[in-house]
Design goal:
Chain lengths: 328, 332, 385
């Protein structure tokens, strides 16, 4: 594998949510690095903190959530910047221009009162790519054509409710790509869509990645998708990354008991597997997370030390890291 | 735009059955008339039988119900209904009294919009702060205050103590464009008349709008917060839009429920006007209705109820059209 | 839920006691009720705790309770009858400002059954020399009785029509909603004015033909038999407000029934052949009662306010009936000099209506699961380990 030229690097990120029920430690010291040109995946169950991590990268955390610590280094053309230290206006210039997002549910992500053309146009206008909204709407036709929207000249004047789910998500992707970003953060981009449309959209994303020289951070709970499109994978559990490895390595040689359980819970078409296994226990409450390793109450190979001390990050080979006392 | 036209046609079609229903209610009011209205109109006990008989015939009081209904509706729709008491055309009377009520309502509406909406936005921006609580309490006080009581309290302050207002006369400019002096004086840029009208109307308008200010502020606050916490707002942030533009998206979405409430409120203000008009001595529709009741002029009463119903229907129609303009989803 | 410990205040114990008493009563009427509704009772208690922690709610409840108590016992507490003209005893009583002392003596006092002595007119008197305090106390009765009569019928017409429209859908729904639309096409107050104006003669005839109904209402309003005439106008307001007050509920309940109808439990009940009436009243209504309760509370104040407004316009209460709105109307002839005839009755209306609005607003919060959860967490004691 080529040497990693990083585009973004997250160090020890911490995010808390201050709710009436108590402080939810949603992200508890997450670190990872994404290399230029790769597709990096964050996988995990619902509520494990993948989306929060993705949004925290550009400080898109709204009250009652708060970023409590860590660094997010973005390697821009002008050199590395810590995004968490930027002010709102500086961040705004990066969001949507250098780092763009695709949200899970295109129906609620688009403002129902404006045409998709307008929403693409204003995204370009606000980043100075066009001097007038009108010009932006003309350019939006190209943007929509780029995401393979059928009949883009007409669709540019359509309101979100006039489009199908797949076309809406194409528009959202179009908005994301309208300013030619370097990094695209796709947060469960196909979950809200029909199965047939899902495949089409993933193909589109991968195709666009190649054409536009993108780096993609893909957030998903779908391991099948991970196997298909990702270069490297990080597995998240209860606000921590428990394991990170290139995709082949992870599927061939999973180390963390959680990863192993997760892979066993996925049907494997090649094996004539008798039954799917589920992971015993439930996702922990993050207000009072289990001390030590957060997975220990559900772990089949739990040891004494797991109950009291948080496991360190251990490297197994150059590119495989795991946070588990078993490998100490 | 084609959808918008189709929507309008459909909306106008539902307008017709409602209008027919409205005429029924108006007729019911006329039909519960006291036992012998003709005698009352003719002057009570000492009325001459001939006059009573003539009135009964003229107003079809002894005819079968369908005939009575036909008679009343025909007269109301063709503008030929004459009051048996004042012997004037009821529709004409309504047209002279209505501008006063409309002006009053417009001034009240102005206060509601100019105070209520910004207050609601501020409360939403400073959510759970002292200001937010004050707005909430203000809204509760607003809907709890008897309008006539408030009127006297404010008259005491502004008229008796401060002499800030005029309580007599109804300024009418010599020219006539729409027939509503407030609007006409603005169109003619006649600020002197305009100032006179405002001086006469600002307090009654404020009193009339008082309850609505807090209500609108609360609704603006809640729908603003709803829109602000929506996914599309978060996506707008993720797109790197400027604060100003994000607020524009939020505000436009928040305005949808507000427009509905404001529309209903406009009708409510028209309805609340009788009390305000009575206190401030403004010769408007409400005053006309109450006069009609006092004179046992039930046909004038019926006519004015019909008129107000019509206005209210039209106001609702306008709201629905506005709604369709703001929200493209409604057009379908 | 049951193992969780809550920090209880005095008020919580009181509300617990009330709810338990109600549950026991229901259990007596239908044995086994308590057991079947265990979770509902716990839910109610939690709502009560949440309510008890809201100062506006408490203030509102105090205002409402004072109003109801005064309306019930007021006519007995009042120093004078609502129509007694004190000018018979003392000419100073005419338009007497608050604090005026008048002396009652002589044969007339005996005849009218007033105890002789010196009286301080705490709130003053009106232009007929009637004691304002007494009239306010009687006026509370008038307001309460009218509000109860209106709320006991008007909204329920709407609720039942809304349930039917929402549940059956189709043509029935279309018909009911068209009728509702027609009534909503008028501003409420205008329709109420018109009906209060044309109804009294008809009601008067009805009352003359049904003396027992008339006597019942006279007692309810604490009126003297000779004032049966004005009673017709009061009841006309009640009927007028029924007409005005149902359409809003029909629309509201229809919408809620529509979404409730989609729930599995309704489908299951229907599949099991449960009679429709039973489904509507036993299953759907209890589930949508929360929001309805909020509106009923708010509208209780709304009715009082509207009734006072109608009386102020000279409709409804006719002299000498004591009615807050009417007192202000009569007093307005002497404004600003006789400020007390406007200030005090207005204050009474304001505080009463405010009470209902405060409680309604708090109920809305309490019934909203999101806010209630947050309050529950505050109430919950931190348990060890």
């Amino acid at each position: 594998m080529a040497i990693c030229e990083p585009i973004i690097e997250v160090r020890n990120l911490k995010v808390n949510f201050y709710t009436y029920a108590g402080i939810v430690k949603a992200i508890d010291g997450v670190s990872f690095k994404i290399c230029r040109g790769e597709t990096y995946c964050l996988v995990g169950e619902t509520g494990c903190g993948k989306s929060v991590t993705a949004r925290a990268l550009t400080k898109l955390i709204r009250p009652p959530g708060r970023i409590e610590g860590g660094e997010v280094i973005y390697y821009s053309d002008e050199g590395p910047i810590n995004l968490l230290e930027l002010n709102e206006e500086e961040l705004r210039k990066i969001r949507g221009a250098e780092i763009a997002y695709v949200f899970q549910d295109p129906t609620s992500a688009l403002d129902p009162l404006y045409t998709v053309g307008y929403q693409i146009a204003e995204t370009m206008y606000e980043h100075g790519r066009v001097s007038k909204i009108k010009e932006g709407i003309l350019r939006a036709v190209e943007v929509l054509r780029n995401v393979l929207m059928p009949d883009p000249e007409k669709r540019v004047h359509s309101y979100p409710h006039e489009l199908s789910g797949g076309m809406r998500q194409r528009s959202v992707i179009g908005i994301g790509l309208s300013n030619k970003p370097k990094l695209l953060i796709a947060d469960e981009p196909t979950t809200a869509l029909d199965a047939t449309v899902q495949a089409q959209l993933m193909d589109l994303l991968m195709d666009l990645k190649r054409r536009e020289n993108l780096t993609i951070l893909l957030i998903t709970h779908n391991l099948g998708l991970v196997a298909e499109v990702c270069d490297r994978v990080a597995v998240m559990y209860a606000g921590n990354i428990v394991e990170e490895a290139p995709v082949e390595e992870l599927f061939r040689n999973p180390l963390h008991p959680y990863t192993k359980a997760l892979l066993r819970a996925v049907p494997n078409p090649r094996k004539k597997s008798v039954r799917l296994e589920s992971i015993p226990g439930t996702v922990p409450n993050l207000i009072n997370p289990p001390p030590g390793c957060r997975f220990h109450p559900r772990c089949p190979r739990v040891m004494d030390i797991c109950r009291s001390k948080k496991p360190p990050e251990l490297w197994r080979g150059d590119d495989h890291r795991v946070a588990c006392w078993l490998y100490e | 735009m084609a959808e918008l036209r189709r929507f309008l046609v459909r909306r106008l079609l539902t307008f017709i059955p409602t209008l027919v229903g409205v005429t029924f209610i108006v007729f019911v009011i006329a039909a519960i008339l006291p036992a012998d209205p003709a005698r009352v109109w003719a002057g009570g006990e000492k009325a001459s039988p001939e006059v009573v008989q003539r009135l009964i015939e003229e107003y079809h009081l002894n005819d079968p119900i369908p005939v009575q209904y036909y008679f009343i509706m025909k007269k109301l729709f063709t503008n030929t209904m004459v009051s048996p008491v004042t012997h004037r055309y009821i529709w004409q009377d309504l047209m002279t009294f209505f501008p006063v009520t409309l002006q009053l309502t417009l001034v009240a509406f102005f206060f509601i919009i100019v105070i209520g909406i910004p207050l609601g936005i501020l409360a939403a921006l400073k959510r759970d702060s002292l200001l937010d609580t004050i707005v909430r309490i203000f809204a509760l006080i607003g809907v709890s205050t008897p309008i006539f009581w408030l009127a006297y309290l404010l008259i005491y302050v502004f008229y008796v103590k401060l002499h800030w207002i005029v309580l007599a006369g109804t300024p009418t400019p010599p020219y006539k464009i729409t027939g509503v002096p407030l609007i006409d004086s603005l169109l003619k840029l006649d600020f002197q008349t305009f100032a006179q009208i405002i001086k006469r109307y600002w307090l009654p308008g404020f009193v009339l709008g008082f309850a609505g200010i807090g209500v609108v502020a609360r609704i603006v606050r809640n729908s603003f917060l709803d829109a602000y916490s929506a996914d599309f707002t978060e996506f707008a942030m993720a797109r790197g839009l400027t604060k100003l533009r994000i607020y524009r998206h939020v505000l436009r979405n928040a305005m949808i429920p507000v427009v509905t409430v404001l529309g209903l409120m406009f009708g409510g203000l028209l309805a609340g006007a009788p009390i305000t008009e009575t206190i401030f001595g403004l010769p408007g529709l409400g005053k006309y209705m109450l006069n009609a009741i006092r004179l046992f002029d039930y046909l004038a009463l019926t006519g004015s109820v019909f008129f107000v119903g019509l206005i209210y229907l039209v106001a609702n129609l306008i709201v629905d059209i506005l709604y369709a303009v703001i929200d493209p989803r409604v057009r379908y | 839920m049951s193992e969780e410990v809550y920090e209880k205040k005095l008020l919580d114990k009181f509300s617990d006691a009330v709810i338990d008493a109600f549950a026991s009563l229901a259990d007596k009427i239908r044995p086994g009720w308590k057991k079947r509704n265990k979770s509902r009772i716990d839910e109610w208690k939690l709502m009560a705790y949440a309510f008890n922690r809201s100062p506006p709610g408490i203030i509102g409840a105090v205002l409402i309770v004072s109003f109801i108590v005064l309306a019930i016992v007021g006519p007995y507490l009042a120093p004078f009858s609502y129509d007694l003209q004190l000018t018979f005893f003392d000419p100073d009583a005419k338009r007497a400002p608050p604090g005026t002392v008048i002396e009652i003596k002589g044969k007339l006092a005996e005849v009218l059954g007033v105890k002789p002595g010196n009286y301080t007119l705490i709130l003053g008197a009106d232009d007929q020399g009637r004691d304002l305090l007494s009239r306010l106390l009687y006026g509370a009765r008038t307001s309460l009785v009218i509000a109860i009569l209106v709320m006991a019928v008007g909204p329920w017409i709407g609720i039942i029509l809304g349930l039917i429209a929402g549940y059956y859908g189709g043509k029935i729904d279309e018909l009911i909603m068209r009728i509702t639309d027609v009534f909503l096409a008028f501003p409420g107050l205008i329709l109420a004015i018109a009906f209060s104006a044309v109804l009294p003669p008809r009601i008067s005839v009805f009352l003359d033909n049904h003396p027992d109904v008339r006597d019942f209402f006279l007692t309810l309003f604490a009126l003297k038999p000779q004032h049966a005439g004005p009673l017709a106008s009061l009841l006309a307001v009640v009927v007028a407000l029924w007409i005005v007050w149902w359409p809003g509920y029909a629309r509201l309940v229809r919408g809620m029934t529509l979404s409730e109808r989609e729930n599995i439990y309704v489908e299951a009940a229907r599949a099991l052949g449960v009679p429709t009436r039973w489904i509507l009243l036993r299953h759907i209504l209890p589930n949508i009662l929360g929001p309805i309760l909020v509106y009923l509370t708010l509208d209780f104040g709304g009715v009082i306010l509207t009734e006072a407004g109608l009386s102020f316009l000279g409709l409804g209460a006719v002299p000498p009936i004591a009615d807050w709105g009417r007192i202000i109307y009569d007093g307005s002839n002497y404004f600003p000099k006789d400020w007390w005839t406007i200030l005090y009755p207005g204050l009474a209306i304001f505080l009463t209506v405010l009470g209902f609005n405060l409680v309604g607003d708090t109920l809305r919060d309490v019934l909203d699961p999101k806010t209630r959860r947050s309050i529950e967490f505050k109430v919950k004691k931190k348990r060890e380990g």
